[in-house]
Amino acid sequence: MKSQRILADFFRRSWPVYVLSITFHLVSNMINVFYPKVLGAFTDKLAGGELTRGLVVDYSLQLLAIGIASVVFSGIAMYLVMYVGRTFERGVRGLLFRHFTRMGERFYAKNGVGKLLSYFMNDVTAVRESIAMGINQTANATMLLLSAMTMMIISGIPLYLIGACVFPLLLIPFIVVYLGPIIRQRSLHVQEALGKMTETAEEQFGGIRVTKKFAVEPIMNRRFGQTVDDIRAAQLRLVRVSSFFQALVPFLGTIALIIALAFGGYLTIAGRLSLGNFVALTLYVRMLMTPLQQIGNVINSIQRSRASLERLNGLLSQSPDIVESDAATEADLSDCAIEIDHLTFAYSPSSEPVLKDVSVRIEPGATLGIIGRTGSGKTTLMKLLLRIYDPPPGTIRFGGEDVRELTLESLRGQIGYVPQDGFLFSTTIRENIAFSDRTAVMGSIEDAARQAQIHANIDELPERFETKLGERGLTLSGGQRQRTSLARGLIKRASVMILDDSVSAVDAVTEKDIIDSIRRERHNKTTIIIAHRISAIKHADEIIVLDDGEIVQRGTHRELLEQPGLYADLHAIQEEGSLHATGTSDS
Amino acid sequence: MRPAQAIHNWQADHKGDHGGQEEKPQYISAFKALSGYVKPHRWALAGVMACTVVAILSELLQPYLMKIAIDDNLLAGKNDFRGLLLICAVYLGLSVSSFIFAYLQNNLLQQVGQSIVARIRKQLFGHIMKQSMGYFDRMSSGSLITHVSSDTEALNQFFSQVLLSLFRDGLTILFILVLMFQLDTTLALYCLVLLPVIFLIAIAFRSFMRATYQLARTRLSRMVAFVAENLSGMGLVQAFHQQKEQQRQFDERNGLYFRANLREIRTNVLFGRTFDILSNLAIALVTWIGGMAVLGKQLEFGVLYAFITYIRQFFQPINTITQQWNTLQSATVAISRIWTIFGTEPEITDKTEETPRSAERSVTRKQMTLTTERSQGVSEEAHSFGSVRGEIDFEHISFSYEEGIPIIQGLDLHIEPGEMIGVVGTTGAGKSSLISLLCRFYDVKEGSIRIDGTDVRDIPQATLHRLIGLVQQEPYLYSGSIVDNVRMFDDSISREDVIRACEFVGADGIIRKLPDGYNTLLSERGSGLSAGERQLISFARIIVFKPKVLILDEASANLDSQTEQLIQNALNVVSKQRTTIVIAHRLSTIMQADRIIVMSHGEIVEQGSHQELIELGGQYRELYEHSQGQQAG
């Protein structure tokens, strides 16, 4: 992948907009600086006694024209920059999302959802702010500064006077740059303290039953009170700096004005400065205060966003683990054997292998059962079959073709996968089941739901298949989620199906029904079932027992029961357990 | 906005959609309520007001001083530089004092505001904690959290922003008006006409802006929620090869957010510029009217200069004040929500006077004295209920959550001290309700529940709750160390006691293997420990707090065989010498119980030992055979 330079790319495309916007800013400010000049001229005419009715009207209209024109131009200039800023934001977020869809599990394991979301939200926003608001304010401030200086010089205000008056104002950006980060730091502390309080409240209300049962409400009130006091302390700490800052900036402004008044007034009295120019000078000083403060803000925001930009560029330049080979071929899994040939796999070169010398051959249409303890490598094996991780070359073959030489689309498109956790999206049940093909007809969705033994539950819901799930909708129980996820896998009627401990949260009776319907549906189609419970796999054509990454036993249910070993042990434990199987039903 | 915040907003917004959204702010009642909290700080607030006046003086008087300088010195042609210097000195003095007082004012106001908000936060939390369980069952914990964090935060913003702005900007506007009238009444009257127009435009724009802001916020949150979900489920998306479809859905949301943003930008720019144009219009107007007056010599030029400056100064505070309008509205709504909670009294309360019935009983008298001790500290009651035997009587109790839908009807049950009772029955049979009633999370409608002959309604709740221990299906852990989780943050329980309890239930070995041993910090929901290990910690709590009656809501989750064994042992340990009630989801745990109770539709349909019930051939036997059959099939 080419090295990512999102900002350079963006400016290459959008520089005309910026040029246009800066031009408008310039025009607006050039018009705007006439305002003190007009008032100055008005004053001089008045002092000279040359003012007439017509001139008063003229000056008023001039002021009005200046006011409207400068505002209109600056409005357009601002809008343009903010507009392209938002297109930048939209574009980068689109890029990021596309990047996310390409990255593999290793990437997610390393980064975590929270961190990625913060790239997606905070970093993009920070960069956008500095290229939109930042450029706007810098352009506006510099243009204003330039035009005001020029105007003052043209009007014949002495340079040393201008210098003396503007000097205190020039301190403002430095103060902002110095105090800005401190204020930001402290306000982050306030945010953190607030977050902590919310967390504590969340925890307390979640565990209210326990708190009440142990009658420790006063202790919990105290714990909560502590977080409240922390907020207050953080807030007051923030106020001490921020109010100092808020008072300091106008103070420097008044100092500049006092200099203008004293020095300018002296020159006026001495006759070296016209009254009109004196009036204009005081007005210019007032005009410059805000833009100078903004420049300080911009410097701060650019500093923050530079780090963000680096993070984003770094993120986007990472390449995905799994890359289709150039000569990838379309696979046809409908009637092919799956071979796993002396597969040894470790997640990273330095770590212990999770799978050691695993060899299995699954005949077309056969059912393979895999059983083993947590961490024995069952799920890793499935991920390698789906090429979520790359197996060593030649160790996994579909119909004789190395899995690494197949297109991902054809491979994953023909495998129905039902993961263990039953992850569902916050959308309707229908869309969740029809995840592999959103246009699936209702009939096939209902069939899949029936096979997964979830149809009856869905039927009871007021909006049936259109019921929304997740945060804004219904929360399903663990067993219901697993069964919905199962329906999502079944609807594909894929040539190969992988069930990764997909019925662990359903009760024994339902489990049996599901296994029966899978056996019917998957008759003569390749199926791999991973389970903790023997009852889910005992019908398989072959069962392998994984322990610590190795196949320790293999055979049919009957064969395995006859030999001493892990399988027989597990069977003994589980039989005993199911003697007292559940008296109440799941959900 | 942080991602979590964005998602939270989205949920909050969405919740609002259902219920009585758009609560009308009730200003008068809200501020009446608040005034009780403000009263103790009235002198401080008067101080703030005084500081404000000094703070805004230099900004206010600057045009006026300029006017004097222009009219009396410069234009008068007196060449009086000393007079000018005097004005400068006054101005400098004013600006230094305003620098100091602006700083003081802000700090003082925050001091007051933060104290009030902190007090309300603590009281609100305490008030919610006082509510009975029925309240928590009705209210979603999400909305309670919103009250405690967001609503009080809105209140905080009221103090730190609205009040500040009302003080500073309100006074500024007022003083500018006064000064304008001081300078020239006619011109001031003209300007006064503008005032309502400006306000109206500002407020109209603000509410429009609020709507566009809300739209953008909702769409942003929706997009972030979508991304968050897809990031968590990316493995699935890839396994199903749905990247393109998800990308399309994302682009759709991204585009919607983009359009909402553009709308927001347009509104903002339009508003800002309109306001600027208005301000410029006002200046042109003043120049025209004032210019004519200067021409006719009714007005000095310095006055005109001051007017023009004042007009400019005028717009800024109006802008800030109208900015506060939205904050004010949400703060008012927040206040009334908070006070609604304050107005909710707990449904279940302790009896205040000693009833004759309870007075007869030694247990109760002891418990009553415990209550008085309680007020000094939770821990002092020494966790000994020495004389309580743990005999429980359910006497013909009836109960329903809603009128007309009875959950339990006329149930009688006598439990001997130290007996172990297993309760089985289908979902909805009333098992959990029975437990809630015994813990007095709810009150019975008819009949009575007695412990050692004392009605639970006559026992102070705190005592009752300590008397009965409950181990939930899903053990709840707090963020904090393991030691604190076992002793429920009660410092009066020693670390040694905690360790002994953990040894007792067999958790010691597991805990010592953790990186920080007993100091290992657990987070919410106890991540880092398996379900079984969390359950062991909740058993250790029981050992430490020594309740006389133990209720166990048995975990139904699939635990691996080894942990299950650990838990079974722990249960045997904790149920010793305690009256124990086990709500069973699997029959294996309760087969050894002294007595098994089969519940159905709020009634006890069968009871007896395992053997007796099997011989009876009723529901229990059916359940038992069902589980047996499963194994055969």
Could you give a quick summary of the protein structure above?
Chain A is of the alpha/beta class. Helices cover 64% and strands 9% of the residues of chain A. Chain A folds into two domains: 2-316, ABC transporter transmembrane region fold (Up-down Bundle); 331-414 and 527-587, P-loop containing nucleotide triphosphate hydrolases (Rossmann fold).
Q: SSE layout and pairings?
A:
The complex is a heterodimer of chains A (587) and B (633).
Chain A: H1 6-32, H2 34-47, H3 53-102, H4 105-111, H5 113-155, H6 159-206, H7 208-213, H8 217-269, H9 275-317, E1 338-345, E2 355-362, E3 367-372, H10 378-385, E4 396-398, E5 401-402, H11 408-413, E6 415-418, H12 429-433, H13 442-451, H14 455-460, H15 478-490, E7 496-500, H16 508-521, E8 526-531, E9 542-547, E10 550-555, H17 557-562, H18 566-579
Parallel strand pairs in A: 3-8, 3-9, 6-7, 7-8
Antiparallel strand pairs in A: 1-2, 1-4, 4-5, 9-10
Chain B: H1 3-18, H2 27-38, H3 42-74, H4 81-130, H5 133-138, H6 141-183, H7 185-232, H8 234-239, H9 243-295, H10 301-343, H11 356-360, H12 362-374, E1 392-402, E2 405-415, E3 420-424, H13 431-438, E4 446-451, E5 454-455, H14 461-467, E6 468-471, E7 480-481, H15 482-487, H16 495-505, H17 508-513, E8 521-522, H18 531-545, E9 549-553, H19 561-575, E10 579-583, E11 595-600, E12 603-608, H20 610-616, H21 619-632
Protein described:
Chain A: Residues 338-573 form the ABC transporter domain. Chain A: Residues 19-304 form the ABC transmembrane type-1 domain. Chain A: Keywords: ATP-binding, Cell membrane, Membrane, Nucleotide-binding, Transmembrane, Transmembrane helix, Transport. Chain A is an alpha/beta fold and 587 residues long. Chain A has two domains: 2-316, Up-down Bundle (ABC transporter transmembrane region fold), CATH 1.20.1560; 331-414 and 527-587, Rossmann fold (3-Layer(aba) Sandwich), CATH 3.40.50. In chain A, 64% of the residues lie in helices and 9% in strands. Chain A has a six-stranded mixed sheet, sandwiched between helices. A four-stranded antiparallel sheet of chain A has the order 2-1-4-5, covered by helices on one side. In chain A, strand 7, helix 16 and strand 8 form a beta-alpha-beta unit. The longest helix of chain A has 53 residues, at 217-269. Chain A is elongated and about 120 Å long. The model of chain A is unreliable at 577-587 (pLDDT under 50). Chain B is an alpha/beta fold and 633 residues long. Chain B has two domains: 3-14 and 23-342, Up-down Bundle (ABC transporter transmembrane region fold); 417-438 and 460-632, Rossmann fold, CATH 3.40.50. Chain B has 21 helices and twelve strands. Chain B has helices spanning 3-18, 27-38, 42-74, 81-130, 133-138, 141-183, 185-232, 234-239, 243-295, 301-343, 356-360, 362-374, 431-438, 461-467, 482-487, 495-505, 508-513, 531-545, 561-575, 610-616, 619-632, and strands at residues 392-402, 405-415, 420-424, 446-451, 454-455, 468-471, 480-481, 521-522, 549-553, 579-583, 595-600, 603-608. In chain B, strands 6-9-10-3-11-12 form a six-stranded mixed sheet, with helices on both faces. In chain B, strand 4 and strand 5 (454-455) form a beta hairpin. In chain B, helix 3 runs antiparallel to helix 10 (301-343) and helix 6 (141-183) runs antiparallel to helix 7 (185-232). The longest helix of chain B is centred in the middle third of the chain and has 53 residues, at 243-295. The two termini of chain B are 56 Å apart. Classes of the chains: A alpha/beta (587), B alpha/beta (633). At the A-B interface, helix 2, helix 3, helix 5, helix 6 and helix 7 of A face helix 1, helix 3, helix 4, helix 6 and helix 7 of B.
